[in-house]
Amino acid sequence: MDLFIVLVICLSCLILFSLWNGSYAKGKLPPGPTPLPIVGNILQLNTKNISKSLSMLAKAYGPVFTAYFGRKPTVVLHGYKAVKEALIDRGEEFSGRGSLPVFEELSQNSGIVFSNGKIWKHTRRFSLMVLRNMGMGKKTIEDRIQEEISYLVETLKKTNASPCDPTSLLSCVPCNVICSVIFHTRFDYNDLKFQTLIKYFHENLMIVSSPWMQLYNAFPFLHYIPGCHKKLFKNVACQKEFILEKVKQHQELLDINNPQDFIDYFLIKMEKEKHNKQSEFTMDNLVITIWDMFGAGTETTSTTMRYGLLLLLKHPEIAAKVQQEIDRVIGRQRSPCMQDRSRMPYTDAVVHEIQRYIDLVPTSLLHAVTEDIQFREYFIPKGTNILIHLSSVLHDDKEFPNPEQFDPGHFLDESGHFKKSDYFMPFSAGKRVCVGESLARMELFLILTSILQNFTLKPLVDPKDIDTTPIVNGLGSVPPFYELCFIPV
């Protein structure tokens, strides 16, 4: 009995301390819903659609508020003004990567996506330099994309207009383009290792976007019990093994005077800094950097494209208008190129609207402040997680009337010319903006125009019965799986 009383007193003290501590922190941080001990605000959020929950909280607490995912406070920035003020006007202060336990475990503060401090700055700067040297954003990489698209078109023709799931095929182009940059090689679409690599990326996106992973990141102790995170760790281990095998092959054939790809450049940098014990250029960092580039360069583009085709199946009149523009500007005798984009405002608007509408990464990846700061009338301590609610920018109803409607007119002026928008932030913004943004933009335009130049998209059901609601909406917004027929034109 005495032991029971002691336990009750200890538990009561713990709860009171948590409440006091939360209240103390809340006094300095922006306002927000009152957190419960241990669990924070998790029970007040819909883990199947965090983005929608955040929008509702913003109505109650304003564009800058605090939510607790577990015991740690996270400052949420909602709406264009708050996001721009943080990421663009005060980019350096908000350039940290926030704490996401699952990715911290996978990356160990290496690579260019989930790292912080010197290792992030040096790796990102080096990677951007190498990618530019290899033609990123230039004609060199455009030629490579066009070549890969030609393989895709031939493969789609071989379906003989039969129903097919486009998931794997749409991944082949961006994945092979990244392979050419990293490994200086491409894979046949039927290559088993290649298809397995792509399968892992699909599975990983589904897992990290699941409600379970939202809970895992709030309560890392869940690592020790069964769950889909086990599958994620297994998949990533296999991907790293694949990457390491390629790196070892490069080590054996390396010509320091003639680097052929990203791995060669990195290995040469490692050799130059081998006597520097503080060097960020290590084998572990190389493997994670490549893994980052694969994930960012393959799954995001292919998922955007897969969602885009589903939207065009739902809206055949929009697909038909794109095809009319293709016939007028490009014709059927040559492949689309990036110079065509400036003369194809409607197609350009469709590509932008696909990215805006699908809202692929609704809350971006967590940021963190790199020092104690005063933001508006609030004090935010160094290291505090910052959640950038990109949905609130991409679906702003003043900038995009009827934002829940798929409408290319959101990016067209009254004369039908393409209209830029500062609110278009699918790649985020500021210091942590996606390294591969220029590549992704190029791929999306060229893949879409090439497919519609060669095929008419035919759904298996009536367009009005097509459901475009994502099947999961967590870290990523994943479209439902579907089949369609590619009818040659």
Automatic annotation (TrEMBL):
Q: Which InterPro entries is this protein grouped with?
A: Cyt_P450, Cyt_P450_CS, Cyt_P450_E_grp-I, Cyt_P450_E_grp-I_CYP2D-like, Cyt_P450_sf, Cytochrome_P450_fam2
Q: What is its main location?
A: endoplasmic reticulum
The residues the record assigns to binding heme are 434
Q: Which GO terms describe its molecular function?
A: heme binding; iron ion binding; oxidoreductase activity, acting on paired donors, with incorporation or reduction of molecular oxygen, reduced flavin or flavoprotein as one donor, and incorporation of one atom of oxygen
EC annotation? 1.14.14.-
EC class = oxidoreductase
Name of this protein: Cytochrome P450
